[in-house]
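Incident review: delayed structure delivery

Summary: a single-chain prediction request sat in the queue longer than the usual turnaround. Root cause was a stuck worker, restarted by the on-call engineer. No data loss occurred. The affected request and its eventual output are reproduced below so the record is complete for anyone auditing the incident later.

Affected input:
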Amino acid sequence: MKRPLQVTLLVLSGLGLLHASLFTDLSLRFVKEGMRPMLVASGVLLLVLGVAEAWSSQKPVSGDDDADGHGHGHDQDDGHGHDHSTVPRIAWLLFLPALSLLFYAPPALGAYTAAREAPKAVAEQRYFDPLPATSPIPLTLTQFTSRVQQDHKRDIGGRSVRMTGFVTPDKGADGWYLTRIIFTCCAADAQSVKVRIHGAAALPANTWVTVTGTWHPGGTLGTSSAPAALDARTVKKVAKPVNAYTDALPLF
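Output delivered after worker restart:
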């Protein structure tokens, strides 16, 4: 790979990172919000390196004089003209991710990923605060699952709750899943949390919705035999929240 192409790769990669993290929200498809400053800094660094490489290529290369007064460039090997800076041809593949960041960002994780993995295990919880008197009660999917399977007081029974997530179809069974995908750091460690929805037709996959309803009976409430499932009363289509890759109450 010649130097001009190396410069082009550095500049394209830098522009791609800045496009995804500074000028758009594309980076939030793949990393948490807290990683954004580091992506911006990396993009700036790549641009600086590209400019520096381009500037250095314009400088004349001085040779070392031998006994005959002839100069040999530092990039020559034993006088045979071998370039030590030669890059393997596979390096051309690096252009693909650089260009994709600028012109075609991969789609965000969603129903396709969630349908192919087991839901995230809910951490054990022994104490639960009393539920508020408000109705419906706004809950995250994790909070609902914990209440259903671990709250021995069974306070969630008969209470109307409201949760937000995206639609994950389940063609092989009754109902569909309300889903959130959670990033610990980035898309590589993504996990999903799901609640099965009964009594309402599924919207298209990846549609963000707010569902209001009550716990769908099964097993023994307050034990691990109780399903994380909801009998839906209303399903309302909503915009994707800005904190889509956390299991927190939605911020629109």
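Verification: The two ends are 46 Å apart (CA to CA).
Action items: add queue-age alerting; document worker restart procedure.
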